[in-house]
Every structure is written in C-alpha cells, then in structure tokens.
Design brief:
Elements (H helix, E strand, L loop, with lengths): L1 H34 L6 E5 L3 H21 L10 E2 L3 E5 L4 E10 L2 E11 L2 E7 L3 H7 L10 E5 L2 E6 L2 E6 L25 E5 L24 E3 L14 H14 L6 H8 L13 H10 L13 H9 L4 E7 L7 E10 L4 E5 L6 E5 L4 E3 L5 E8 L3
Antiparallel strand pairs: 1-10, 2-4, 3-4, 4-5, 5-6, 7-8, 8-9, 11-13, 12-13, 12-17, 13-14, 14-15, 16-17
Helix pairs in contact: 4-5, 4-6
Keywords: Hydrolase, Protease, Secreted, Thiol protease, Virulence
Enzyme class: hydrolase
InterPro entries: Papain-like_cys_pep_sf (IPR038765), Peptidase_C47 (IPR008750), Staphopain_pro_sf (IPR037155)
Length: about 375
C-alpha cells in the first residue's frame, strides 16, 4: 500500500513537471510569435474611402485575368491576393492615388492604383512600386509604420531608419528638405489617419461584369504586340522620341534605334541636344525615313480604331496633356495591346521599364507619383 502511494506521488509529480514544461514551452512560442516581424507592410495613411475599396474589389480581377492572358496562363489557380490600400498624397499636383498591393505568397509582385477624375474611378495595374514596397516592409512594424508621400515629384517613404526614395521624379527634381518636416513625426495625429498592414488581404470578386464591355467579333479576343523596352526616359524632355523609337523598332524589326537618334534627326544643328524636344510632325518625318507612313488624325481616335490598329500589328502613339498641378506639361505613351473581354488596354510609359494595364473606358492616365494626363492626340498607321 505504501509503495502504491509512493508511485501515485511520483506519477503526480511527473505529471506536474510535464504540464509545467508544456506551459513554459507554449508561453515561449506564443511570445516569439508576438514579437517576431510577421513580414507586414505597415503604413500610416489616410483612411481609404469605401467607394475606392469597392471599385478595387469589383474590378481588380479583370486586370489580373488580362495579365495572365498576355502571359499565356489559362488556369485560374494560384490567384494573387489583393492587399489593403494606402493613400499616396501629391500636394503639388493636388491628387490622391490609392495603392493596393498585389500579393503572391505574401510577397508584393504588383500594385493596383486607383484614382478619381470627374467623379469617375479608374485603376492601373502594373509593377509600379512593387519591389520598393516589398523592401520597405522589412523596415516597418505596427509600432513603427512608414509614411509614404510625394515630395517634389519623388515618391518617398519615411521610417524610423530614415528616408527612402521609392521612385525618383521623372524630371530629375530633388527632394525639398523644407517639406520633409510635414512627415517627420510618424504618429497618428488625425482621426482621418490610421496605421494599416498593407499585406492584410481584402476579398475581391473573381468574376467579370461584361455588361458594359462591347466585344467586336471581327477582332481577336485579345492582342498584345511583342514589343521590347530597350531604354527608359531620363530627365531629358524626349518622351516623344522614346515612343517613336519604340514603335519604329517594332514596325521595322530593328533593335538599334534609340531616342537620341530621333532627337538628332529633328535637330541636326543643335548645340544642346539634351534640352531639345521633338514634335509629332518630326516623329512622323523620322518614321518615313524608315519606310513607314504614319499620320496624325484631325481628332483623337476612338477605342475601336485603337483596337483595330493593334490587331493590325501597329502600336499607337498617345499624346497626353497634363491635367493636374499648375504646370501643364505634355507627355507621350505607347498603346501596345488590348483585351476586349476584360475591357483594358496595355500601355508603355517611357518613364518605366514595364508595361501597365489601364481601362479602355478612361482617357485619363495617372502616373506612379499621382500626376495625371489626358490622352488627347494620336499618331496611327505606323
């Protein structure tokens, strides 16, 4: 009997020791999970309006499908997640652009930027800021979020470690130090602000509303020209020359034409070639040198004409006017693809080394830093 009681006591002691070990181990594991960096992207931001979130939820799928169609991916497996948005405020241009990260396995692979013009929402899907935001996520926590803003055309992030330039101003302007004081304090000062983890997924609708999309059965369902980006625009005012070289290379099968060739052709006697710009007439003349015969219509082309141009293997020169800010500049893009079933175009902005997808039903293009451009003129039939 005594031996039996001793065995019971030993068993109880062993059980208590085991439970204590489990308790300590569990406590350590929980504590470790709470303190380790979960890989989030924490940003202090203005609260995103509900209608913007609704637009992203209802529309991002068609942009994803368009991208997969271009890449030849037919399966809908392994669709990306739509992250939570932050607001990118550009005070100089008086614009706000809302960025939704696009996540594959919690890694930012693309972004969907949503903007409003004249009461209408639109979105652009591309690689813009994707790598930069992923790197930025390594420097943020819920207690130490980043503030992302535009400073003199530069997209910057301020963290406790300092200032990161996520994307430089396309015209080469430097950061204005006197404006940094507005962002130096990283803490919520207004009820309009919140700290969010941009990698927190938002459920989106995995279907396409085709009620507003007109499909032309005489054209391919989608068409993306096999163009190649060989150079990107520096701070020189050569956007028209970059787009012209891009198109002429594709149409002639050449690989050696560059923007500087277009500028030198237009200004053979210039003493300062890097300050020269190129007119549309000069772009047309340059193309004729290579046996092409493009022209500028008296009025801008319709969406139908644009799609027919792409179907005929002819990119479209898009002449744009700036509609944001006080300085009304001009810029040029190239239209090089469409998808009728998803209602999108594929365009190239010579500022960037990637293509972007924008809706067919808008003529307003918003750059990464929030500057806005209206497609007003075209050169076709290259």
């Amino acid at each position: 009997m005594i031996a039996y009681q001793r065995l019971n006591k030993i068993a109880v002691i062993l059980l208590l020791v085991f439970l204590l070990f489990i308790s300590v181990t569990t406590e350590v594991k929980v504590h470790a999970q709470e303190t380790q960096n979960p890989g989030g992207l924490y940003v202090e931001t203005q609260i995103c309006p509900e209608n913007v979130v609704k637009y992203a939820r209802e529309n991002v799928y068609r942009f994803i499908i368009a991208e997969r169609a271009e890449k030849g991916i037919e399966s809908n497996n392994n669709l990306p997640a739509l992250g939570s948005p932050f607001a990118l405020v550009n005070e100089e241009e008086n614009t706000i652009t809302y960025y939704f990260p696009i996540l594959y396995n919690n890694h930012i692979e693309a972004t969907f930027r949503v903007y409003e013009v004249n009461g209408q929402l639109a979105g652009i899907y591309s690689e813009a800021l994707a790598n930069e935001l992923e790197e930025l996520s390594k420097k943020t926590t819920a207690e130490k979020p980043a503030v992302i803003a535009v400073n003199n055309g530069n997209v910057i992030a301020i963290t406790c470690e300092g200032i990161d330039v996520l994307q430089k101003d396309p015209y080469g302007k430097n950061i204005k130090e006197d404006k940094l004081k507005n962002f130096q304090k990283i803490s919520i000062q207004s009820s309009d602000n919140e700290v969010i983890n941009c990698k927190t997924p938002i459920q989106y609708l995995s279907k396409i509303d085709t009620s507003e999309i007109t499909v032309n059965n005489t054209l391919p369902r989608f068409k993306y020209l096999n163009t190649t980006i060989r150079e990107t625009q520096s701070s020189y005012p050569w956007c028209a020359a970059y787009v012209t070289a891009f198109i002429v290379n594709f149409r002639t099968g050449r690989t050696d034409i560059r923007a500087i060739d277009v500028v030198k052709f237009a200004h053979p006697n210039s003493n300062n070639i890097y300050q020269e710009s190129v007119s549309r007439e000069q772009c047309i003349a340059f193309a004729k040198k290579y046996g092409l015969n493009p022209y500028e219509p008296s009025s801008n082309i319709s969406y139908s004409t644009a799609k027919h141009q792409i179907a005929a293997e002819k990119p479209v020169y898009m002449g744009c006017d700036e509609i944001s800010g006080d300085k009304k500049g001009r810029h040029a893009l190239a239209l090089r693809g469409y998808n009728e079933q998803t209602g999108v175009f594929s365009v190239w902005n010579p500022w960037y080394n990637y293509y972007e997808t924008m809706p067919i039903d808008t003529r307003i293009y918003t750059a990464t830093n929030g500057s806005r451009w209206e497609w007003k003129r075209s050169i076709i039939d290259w």
